[in-house]
Fold these 4 entries.
Entry 1:
Amino acid sequence: MSRLVIEAVSRTFPGVGGGPPTRALEPTSLAIGDNDFICVLGPSGCGKSTLLRIVAGLDTPTTGRVLLDGAPVTGPGADRGMVFQSYTLFPWLTVTENICFGLREKGVAAAEQARLAAHYVGRVGLAGFERHYPKMLSGGMQQRTALARALANDPKILLLDEPFGALDNQTRSLMQELLMGIWEADRKTVLFVTHDIEEAIFMANRVAVMTARPGRIKTDLAIELPHPRHYTVKTSPEFSAYKARLTEELRAESIRAATMR
Amino acid sequence: MRPLVPVSTGVKLTLGVAFFVLFFAAWAVATLGGYVNRTFLADPLTMVAAGWRLLTIHGFSLDIGVTIWRVFGGFALAAAVGVPLGIAMGAYKPIEAFFEPFISFARYLPASGFIPLLILWAGIGEAEKLAVIFIGSFFQLVLMVAVTVGGTRRDLVEAAYTLGAKASGIVRRVLLPNSAPVIAETLRLVLGWAWTYVIVAELIGASSGIGHMITDSQALLDTGQIIFGIVVIGVIGLVTDYLFKGLNQWLFPWSLA
């Protein structure tokens, strides 16, 4: 059974200054099974972030609906954890307090909060930084804290909106391996949005390629690389074959996107 | 000098004190050197002597106390009502739509223009003085707090929603802590304005306070006393400003780190 079902979801934004409305997302359907790791890959501005925001409940679809475990999504909630591309740690809270934000909202006992925070601080490799404020952390450390904050809430599905997009290449690779390790251990259902082909292949069990705006899913490709995935898989022939295929798919859309405006 | 490069604490302190020294030196040269008529501008030594006389013979410390109480009383009233209202307006748009146009109108009404009216309503007692300060600071404060709270980063609010926060949680755990340092800075700014209003209020229909002493001294043509009164206000302002700054840094270490 599918954990998350996206049913013909579309989004049209009203026109600016009397202009015509913008169709950001064509009716899109996607089913995500339990323990799936799905990457939505698309050129910038294709509506992939809009799709993720609708799943998160931060935006409402113009048509269609999203079902989580069969129940329609009507707004944001703790059952769908999210990590954003921008740094969204609460600057007035320490690393530990940030991780405990959702737990406090749920009314989890203080001792249990401390235990979970310590556990996730360890999982994302931030031991020793528990009492640091976000401003004292590098971008990669902030995103690791954001990941721990989302995981500590134990959501049914983890939504990731280009979470490593603002990081440098080396940090991004390490973050991908970190997330891969966490996923291989927990098999938490993940919906990951990115425009980075290598990232999509390395992380996902399935890659859904979106067209240029207005976006829709044009290809749904299963990635059959074995687990545990090591960073060396990126140089394997299988990886290269996937990369060649997805590069072609994405390139066509990027050209369309570039010639549209 | 290169743009935006910070200086060490020692250099900062020296430069800050240096301006005071230069200022008093220029004043001393102008007055003691005979370039300015002493009837219109007392020299620094005369001012200090006048100040000593005021404090030891005329009980000026009582006036200072009265003025400080009026400033903080009026300011506390304005903050006690203005900060919660500003937060409510910043957080909830219907509340903002209801109050904002009137407050934008009211903040242009000159507080000192209300003094004759307030004397008619409340007499020349403390209530009138507090009312002048309240009117002068309240409306500005409300608008600035509302803008601060309303300007909270949307992605922080969205992150809190995805962590399970509800409307009240968003206000208490995101909008409030996020805005607190800026609100504290706003209070510091508005307290400065309250000092202007208290002196204006005391120039008219008062029987005590620093402003009252200044008007009395004008009748006596004692510019030394007038300047001493102004300097006292400046010193109190400087001290409270630094206390406020220190308090803010202590309360909100995360906003500086």
Note: Chain B has ten helices and no strands.
Entry 2:
Amino acid sequence: MKKVLLLVLTVAAFYSCKNDKEQTSTQGNGDQEVNIYTHRHYPSDQKLFKRFEDSTGIKVNVINASADELIQKMKIEGAQSPADVLITVDAGRLTRAKDQDLLQPVKSDVLENIISSHLRDPDDYWFGLTKRARIIVYAKDRVDTTELSTYEDLASDKWNDRILIRSSSNIYNQSLLASLIVHNGEEEAVEWARAVVNNMARQPKGNDRDQVKAVVAGEGDIAVVNTYYIGNMLNSDSEEEVKAAKAVGIFFPNQDGRGAHVNVSGAGVAKHAPNRENAVKFIEFLVSEEAQHVFANSNYEYPVNEAVETSQLLQSWGEFKEDSLPLSRLGEYNKKAVITFDEAGWK
Amino acid sequence: MRQAGNNEIFSIKNRLKRLKRDSNKWALLTLVIIFLIALPVISIGVTLFAGPGETWGHIVDNLLLDYIGNSLFLIFACGFLVLLLGVSTAWFVARFEFPFRRQMEWLLILPLAIPGYIVAYSYAGIFDYGGTLELVFRYVGMEPFRLDVMNRGGLAFVLAVSLFPYVYVSSRAFFLNQANNLLEASEMLGAGEFRTFFKLMLPLARPAIIAGLILVLMEVLNDYGAAKYYGVNTFTVGIFRSWFSLEEPETAVYLSALLIVLVFGLILLEKFQRRKMVFSSNRTNTQKIRRKRLSRRMQWLIFSLVIIPVLLGFIFPVGQLAYWAVLTYERVFNMSFLLLSLQSFWIAFLTALATVFVAVLLIFFSRWSRMESIKNTAKLGVLGYAIPGAVVAIGIMIPMIFLDRWLMGVLDSLFGVQTGLLLTGTLFALIYAYVVRFLAVAYNPIESTALKVSETIPDSSKVLGVGNLKTFFRIEFPLIRTGILSAFILVFIDVLKELPLTLILKPFHVNTLAVKAYEYASDEMVMEAAIPSLFIIVTVMLPVIFLNRLLIK
Amino acid sequence: MLKIESLSKSFDKGKTYALKNVSFDLEQGDVCAIVGESGSGKTTLARLIAGLETPDAGTIIIDGKVVSSLKKQVPPEKRKVGLVFQEYALFPHLNLFQNVMYGISRQKNKKERAEEVLKLVGLNDIKERYPHQLSGGQQQRVALARALAPNPSLLILDEPFSNLDSMLRMQLRNQIFEIVKNAGVTAIFVTHDTQDALAVADEILILQHGELIQKDAAANLYTKPNSIYVASLFGNTIQLCQEMKSAFQCPLNPDCCHAIRNENLTINSECEFVTHARVLKKTYLGHDTQLLLKLDNGQQLTVLTKDRDVAERIKIGFNSKDVLEFHS
């Protein structure tokens, strides 16, 4: 009995390893393939991968995990890493990957022409694919729009006990603080974080959607959230979420100054990419009008390809001025931002 | 007793001679297995020597107290709740007749089928603004009432209702099989139901209860998803934060080491406490407990008490998930989802086989090794359970890559073959990591059934001229089958639910239900996570019910 | 046949010894008993001989072959030693026949041999039954049959009768040792009961706290114990302390230790040393009567007697030939 089990086990284990080996060993032979390490896991992406496969015949293999974990994985795998493309949902992680020598520069006219320069790496190590803005939502009945102005203003006393914002372990918050460090200097950023912690209506918890709901529930008056979550909420399966999202007003901060903080979801080619050409093709495909159209319409992100219109919903929120700070700077200050958060007691 | 000659018998020279005599192949094989299991810990331990990262001081100044405070709070709050729920239900089910008692027996295990972080999401959904509870209140025309669960108290509650079955199962086994004659003696001495329970049963069941409790606390300390979502900074959250947000694996390793110290501290504390009172009960006494029939009214009272944890730990969260699933199934459910479920199932199956196999090897090789020190070393095999899944995963990758590079060099120079990474990123690496992580889950039930078999039984087989291996197949395996089967099922369940380790080590083309659920949830599509979660629950439910029947036997 | 040289075993690295420096020999066909109280190390000795434990020092030689030493440890399955455990250790998932067949599965006439030994213990008729369907005595006999089946060169029985009631025990004791003697096998019988040992063994070893304190023929042990401990193992013994000696006015060497067996004390009859005593309390024990005596010099003494109707005041005494003398 046990012997049979043992036999089954070894055969099965061997079979599964072998299976994988076949797949990896084909990589070198010019068989058309591209291996994606991605933090994005939206149905829209799967749709795009499928379209890429259909139009080019290049098979897309995907590993989904958080960008941090993917970076660690690539680091450990080193020269043997099967990764061709790394996709993250923020620029900071891409800069980190670049700094840790995990990416390689790509010279592509297609990419350079389509993506405006502040949304890609100055040395062409990575490229933004879609944009999200970090905005303020407010309770229409309790907040007058004239009260709202800038991110910096969130530190003022009038917001005491009124601000809702999620945990500092969230990358979008880290990016926002990094941008404040770049613009206003470290000391002011520390002061700002301290003051915002003081103004919080409750300890940070939950995700962006929860912050919106908490505004509607009256726990606080304003919340700092990402645009595309609002888009998703407005199109949610749950009536309650739709109601909540409709109940809040949307405000783009710093419109009189540098513009609202934006971040990108972006991609870079791995340093040891076994399928470099396919990787470049793949990224080029993702910024093509066809692909950008899918991004814009199914996931409520702003396309980086300006030839593509934003979705109806996003248009209804109006045009806005975006901060043109090169996103590569965010990565430089990411760690500083995390430490600043901790020191300010931002959970 | 110490006499002349003692020094000579235990002189270094004679000790070495005995060591040489007693170091048989089994001792060697035990050490090999232990080495392989400890390898990730060792590779991480080596990095400890590199010193902590530069942010270590920052963490100590700003965060460490919070981590310790929250983790200790969870240990005590969750521990208390789990004991309350687990032990009381076990006693009611074992001791009294009441309506639907048979159904309750297995219903009480079902909360184990739901990963803790998913329970956390569903409770957030229930108590949320516009959440289910509010809808229900509005529907019946009452003023909506809201409760904030997203804090550390709520986290303790959520983890407790999903983990109490560990304590329920272990204490019920004691009550069912060990307690009867003591119970009767207590009744003869005129002790009432309360006195019997608090003065007699509770202290006697303590080792069984603690065994379950330790499993619960390990799970609590390992939890990442729920704590992160509820905004509670625990050690594990800190490990992820320093590893990934602060980019300092060295610091994460220091935190892991502290966490391990905490876990071992707990275990030692318990051991020390227990040493003061050694209870042994007669092993041959296998008389089943006699159930008491109370008045009809009392029976329904007990029923309504026992159903509370079932509602909290299973029916409410599953109800919430089912509601979400109805909303989202059109988008989530399709053919590739079914394939994914099958893959998930297959991986869990394979891993459970491998883990049970290694646990059996470890237990029996160390028994055959003739050396006490080896037998004690074997217990180190369970250490992976105390280490967060993500840490195990990274700890596996380091030596794997090293080995892969070496293999590549060898193959290249010998045969001129260019290969990629042979081990890393394969199912083998993933299953290896699972085995390290869940060996304790398989080790404990197998060892405890093996201990129930009197040592003289395999001994007499050997005296009759039958070697170790044959004795195992012909005598021990048939006698510990149920332990092996329970171990298999427990590992199967845990693998299906496992998340952080899978995220890091899973190969291309492989995906699991837990990963799918997490992907949705981590991108704020909690509702979409409902269907994969329900699939996990259904897949786990059947073996859980089966396991219950095994345990009652 | 069996030769044991300065065997020692400690379970706590030398703090205490379960067995300390034990040496003895056995000849082919001997039936030897190892007697000791619980904790005296007798089971450890049996397990060492069987190879289930490894010694810390010393040598075990069976049939001229070293099986245990500092350099070597032959595993139990290669020793051809039969062992019957105290709790029988029958395989619960195998029936009687399968249990007996277990150790001889590689022999040629295994079925015949199994039936032969089952007949020997009188259980061939119920060989299809499982251990839990048997009485304690039957289980005991199966365990013996199982151990005898492979023709062991040495058979060890570890407390084989301790789980049985006294009637069954006597019956089975005689039956089993008849079987053992007929089989001509060298046997070691481990027991705490001297009655059992005297009934079946040619030679007896006494263990105390892990040390061998006397090895002698059965008859000698009773008459010439080398210590008061051994003497008292074989029957109610009264130590003759200085006060007792003076009460009986017997001039014994004060440097030696002396004792007298209860059955050698005589009541109301003539002998060398006598004294008078008052009966404080009489307890009927059926076969015997227990008397609590107060001697004239005030010493109290408990003795057993067959005489039920002793008077209030009695004369009590013994002869010098019955005095046991120990040099220690």
Note: Chains A and C do not touch (no CB pair under 8 Å).
Entry 3:
Amino acid sequence: MGTSGTSPLGARLRGLLPSRAFGLFIARRLLAVPPLLVAVSFITFALLHAAPGDYVTRLAEDPNISEEVLDQLRRAYGLDGGFFERYGRWLLHAVQGDFGYSFSKEIGVFTLIGERMGNTLLLSGTTLFVAWGLALPLGVVAAVRQGTWVDRLVSFISFLGLSVPRVFFALLMLMFAVTTDWFPSGGIRDQVNWDTFTPWQRFVDVAHHLVLPVVVLATTEVAHYMRQMRAEMLETLGKDFVRTARAKGLNTHQVVWKHAFWNAVNPLVTLFGYSISSLFTGSFLVEIVFSWPGMARLTVDAVFAQDEPLVMASVMMATLMLVFGNLIADLLLGRIDPRIGVGK
Amino acid sequence: MLKLLGFLGLGLLAGLGLWACSCGGGDAPTGKAGVATPIGIPKPGFEDEVPKGALKVEDGEIGRYGGALVYAQPGDPKTLNPVIANDSASNDILHGPVFASCLGFHRVKQVDEMQLCEKYEKSPEGLTYTFTLREGLTWSDGAPLTADDFEFTWAVMQDPAVPNSAKDLFKQGVDEAGVPRFPRFEKVDARTFRFQLVQRDVLFHQNVGSIYVVPKHKWEAVWKAGQFAQAMKVNTPPAEIVSSGPFRVKEVKSDERVVLERNTRFWKIDAQGNRLPYLDRVVILIVPDFNASFLKFREGETDVLEVRPEHVDPLERKAAAGDYVVVDLGPSFNTNWFIFNLDQRMSKEGPPYVSPMKQKWFQNKNFRKAVSHALDREGIVKTVMAGRGQPLWTFHSPAVKAWHTEKVVKYPYDLDKSRALLTEAGFAFKEGKLFDAEGNHVEFSMSTNAENATRIGMLNVIKDDLAKLGITAHIRPVPFNDLITSMRSTRDFDAILLGWGTAVPPDPAQSKNVILSSGDNHAWFPQQTAPATEWEKQMDALLYANVGTDDMAERKRIWEELQYIFSDEQPQIQLVVQTFYAAGRKKLGNFNPSGLRPTTHWNVESLFKKGQ
């Protein structure tokens, strides 16, 4: 990596590339991924196997479906054979990149996941944006105005946000939507009139549908990050360099935003990295309550239907997101805080 | 500063990028469909001439063109292939609205009605059925719909690589080698085809009605390549799904919506000769569950709703002020029942499925009758169904007009009678507890599926009722899959509470699987090689006699006889049926719901939106 030649271009490239230690760190983290995936897949497969019945059993609810058709389906889906035989078959295909077809829809699992991922990322991405956009300034304001009514109000709200369970809050919001009629009762857009909308109307419509789920999701996050920001800021504001800055005659605005803020925000970068890893799964419950057509409904339906290939693929995706989210968090921290040497 | 910008910018970019990707996903508005079209334009873009043999729909009022029917459905369709579809979410969309069959069943009048076929003839001995298609039928792409398509569909159904449950309906016993026999299909000419049966089947024409024909010109090559089971999936381009029903598929978006648009070559006309369907589109919102369907209806987003019992009150309270009506459809077609495990076999591991002690109780007819008398069915209706239901005594729900009978043994709530029956059967009461002749306390477990709160509620009432007889009964909620496995193969249960839905048309011939002692769903003792009891032997014989004749009066008499034995022996203790409700907007014309699926829109081609 980056050892070729001494040409100006080579040197420039080498400058851009991470250091050798850095590369080793990433390589080590990546090497740990395959065993992790195998372990997670094994456990998931075992749990699915332990659940009573299989995908085909559910069809027996119809008294007119005979055992013969059920057996025929079982063979077609590869549900015959013991646990290790079936897991082996799955693993063998998976390492070749073939995660199979969803039983229930006969469509490749990643096609299905791809369709939904956009919707989930829209919801969790907007939440991330809103949550951080509110939490940082509010945290700073609360710290600067420590002890005033602003601080107390912000604290009160954050305690509320942390203590009300998300599902309960989501149901409350749904009730609010239904009784007031100000917001839609779930879904991602107006399914009936969508075709007649102009692009701008479509944007407004999706935004309208986003409001309540984002409020529910962001409330907890805002509360969490804001308290963190406030604590860090308070600590920083008491440090010597801040006093020095004040003594130099800088105004409060400059002291707070140019000096203190940058030092206080450091530890939160890690948190930001971790919130990336939860982009995929963090909104599960809220997606269900608000009928959001995202990964949650796909996965939950797959679990209930015992649609094995789909459950396996979606668990693998979530695991990967978690691993890479954590990696990004660690790397961000390494970049931002020179005191932490990555790879040492 | 750059650090923060980069850091916030990441979020910003993520946000904006996602906005764009989600909003651009929809399809472009089309000129014809949608709300922008003036409602009631005289002739929407129908194509070709009206087929010569077009079916005239006489019932209902003359509607007006335009508009969309919107309803919510829990669960995505799994496939768009009408042959392999085996779940109700797919069937409800495909069977009828998108794909037509030879003949059907009028959901309200409960009589046969011809569809693609204009008539069928049956030979006197009942072994040859000849079906004649209407003149001038075409698929939605303009290709003629002929007997070739039926021949093709029949061949596909017989293909072992195409799992489908419709094929089972055509099984006609087995040959010497134990291989199931099927009738022989014969194409006579472009509009005529014939089936040669091996044995008589009184419901044969209706079985043919369950063949949802698929276009040969479109799928023959795919089938020959061994790919038919993968044809017509939910992600197949909608234009490929050539249809024969009033609508064709326009869009399928998983967990969001399914949009159907008018089949401009549909072969039905109204009483004045106007071509159907009236509606431009059908929009089916995919929701997670029935509560969401209810919310969508209450918010005014949807036009029709199959009303769950718990939603009747909130809807009726507002109906007077609202723009909708709630229709009481009488008793539901779905039954609820309670069985004891009457299995007398030994399990594979050795010991009998049911311990000899319990077998002695359960096999005792008086014990079952006593239990039946002890169940307060009115109480179940009051507490579990909020008063919206009625006791059930017959095999079918009273909703089944053609086969309902009052000539059965009924078991009104009567504890004294129960006690008398038990004493007669050798049981004894000591300190309020019930003991058998050997001195064992009567104690057993009752299973039902844990997901169903109504059924758990019924078991709670039953538990209390049985306690009054001195019987200790334990409630055992298990996952649905477990319950089915218990019932069908492992047989490790004492008693089960469950329900049957109904086949269309409801007919004794459809209950073979339950009534016959060899049936898979003869749940108290399934798959018997020879009838275990005299009365099961009688019931077998009566059912065979019932389906062996076309004489309706005779069939009805035999069914009544069978019903009497069924109610007297109480192998399956019938409990209650719910009252069924449907709701629809007042602006929806020809709204005429039925207790049979698809409840609210079985006549979708005649539904229309009234003018403002």
Note: Chain A touches chain B through 70 residues (CB under 8 Å).
Entry 4:
Amino acid sequence: MVSAVFHSPLEPLPVPPQEATKSIAISACTASVTGQKHSKTTTTPWVAHRWAALSRAFWQRVLPPACGLALLLGLWALVSASTGRSIPGPQETWLQALEVFHDPFYRNGPNDQGVGWNVLMSLQRVAIGFGLAALVGIPAGFAIGRFTFLARMFNPLIGLLRPVSPLAWLPIGLLVFKGANPAAIWTIFICSIWPMVINTATGVQRVPQDYLNVARVLQLSEWKVLTRILFPSVLPYMLTGVRLAVGTAWLVIVAAEMLTGGVGIGFWVWDEWNNLNVKNIIIAIFVIGIVGLALEYALIRLATALTFDEVKA
Amino acid sequence: MNASLTTKFIEIQDVEQTFKTAKGLFPALQGIHLTIAKGEFVALIGHSGCGKSTLLNLIAGLTTPTAGTLLCANKEIKGPGPERAVVFQNHSLLPWLTCFDNVYLAVERVFGRKESKARLRERTATALALVGLEHAGQKRPSEISGGMKQRVGIARALSMEPQVLLMDEPFGALDALTRARLQDELLEIVARTHSTVVMVTHDVDEAVLLSDKIVMLTNGPAATVGDVLQVDLPRPRNRVQLAEDPHYAQCRKAVIDFLYTRQAHVEKAA
């Protein structure tokens, strides 16, 4: 069972309160000492406080990620040097990236398009495949969670099909849909439906009995139960499912496009491999990572905005 | 026969409740006989785990008995319904609705077919005013205190104009001062609305202060009605005056005697 708890890697850590007050106290002290010499007694403590806050922010928020990035670049440069430049180093890649992003939306025929088009095409496939999966998976999750019979009916099927690599479905897609693009969308559909079905069903099964008792005492209609009780309390679980689904879809689309060809970031990687243009492959890896991070971040923000404290607990 | 109709509003006849557990059948309640008159305030008291809440859930219709029958206004209780409103132990307000909307959900369900939207809103506002929360309508449950949440729960139950108000340790989770204030409020509300109330409690003072009748349950398993005490203290009741009332002390003594001498809780060696 997929865990249905929010966990944001991007959440800032809270500053320990003791530490914060201590440094404020120190800066206020120094400010009052200097303030006696100068005439600006009213503004100096504020400036000092502000400066302390800024330097604290630098040490806690800016420096650690900068160190991480530096480590990555260092290792990359090392690998590049030790392979005798067959893997290009950070600097050459950066220069190449400037060139690639100079005109991301050019079109020279069907097999030579800018990186922007490739990313957009991949995102479009993910959006269609994922959207269809949400249309089927979320209602299915509600039904499976609400009715034990359906849960017992579908649990073995989900158990059997979920571990199958979505790429194994690609030939079936090609056979049925007779086209590379619908087959890729079909693969995305298959891989992103499971987290949504499972998380929605789990959410429905975990609706607190108290709320359902309220519904029973009030004899609410099934529609009211769905809109007023089930949907709001399932929403956070559902959004976790959506987040996992989008993450998986973005992982799978690259592989699917490598196999199907056409226009897309996965195909672009494969094409650049055939051209032995390793710099572009590395650029593609960064692009895939950044787009994935942006998707994840957007969905976390959406989930936090729509979640109630008492449901999160 | 007419006289018996008015006196017997809720009838519980030889009710038995057995639960299936991993260790086999567990008899929770056995041979429960009880009648409750219209407008009567009944407290169910007993040691924890004796089946007070089980009995209340049976009256609410949230569970069905394994044997025996429960009647409300001469009709068999077959399931839960808005005519038997429940105030839950932990308030059970929906966190995504404002206090007003929580109450409105109930009002809309009971009166929505017959009355206009404006009238429904008016009813909701009246119910909130009844518990002194007219100002908190637009707040969400997470923004108000535990006592206020419980009051919204009571307002929700009262707003349905139920025939019976069922309360499952409604003040159990509150501090002593808040509890006392809500008990006083409940006394006033019940005096005004002439509600029939069944309340589960483990607080002897609360039971004596509020009830007309205290139903004392024996220890489980297979708990049954051990004794019924009529509390004929005059109303309106005032907790300060009652503190020195010899009859109040007598009632209190009777319940304490039942709970701690006759039904002293024997911890089983597991």
Note: Chain A touches chain B at residues 210-211, 213-214, 216-220, 224, 228-229, 232-233, 308-311 (CB under 8 Å).
